[in-house]
Sequence to fold (158 residues):
Amino acid sequence: MSERNASGRQQRSVARLAAVQALYQMEVSGVGVDAVVREFSDHRFGGDIEGAALAEADEVFFAEVVKGVVQAQSDIDQAIAKRLATGWRLDRIDATLRAILRAGAYELTRREDVPVEVAIDEYVEITKSFFEGPEPGFVNAALDAIARDRRPPDERKG
Fold:
């Protein structure tokens, strides 16, 4: 699915939010990646809330992000940790923020098909849906730095 058409963008946006939720759920509950991907596919996607249909998600992209974060977590966590303030450890960061950073870092380090600006903007918007303080700015700065570390300048624009 392309980032370029409107419905594809919306489906990927929904998938990104769900991926953050799934990563958070895995961390706090200890549930495995296959179980959480199956739960979202079976029970959360295509449903409704109080009779209103939920927006469709790109379920394949969702699964790729969640599984990709798990498979590359050591490298992803190192990329994030490199961009934390001196003395800060990744495990000191709020679990939701950690899930956002991991998903964003995965896309920036492993998904060259996703434009840098798209990934950063999407995860900053997700952060705004959970936090009202300085966190969106922190996510923006951290993901931008990871992109600079991992992608050549000609790949930075989408």
Observations:
- DSSP finds seven helices and two strands in the chain.
- The mean pLDDT is 87.
- Residues 6-151 form a domain with the N-utilizing Substance Protein B Homolog; Chain A fold (CATH 1.10.940.10).
- The helical segments are 6-29, 33-44, 59-71, 73-81, 95-110, 116-130, 135-150.
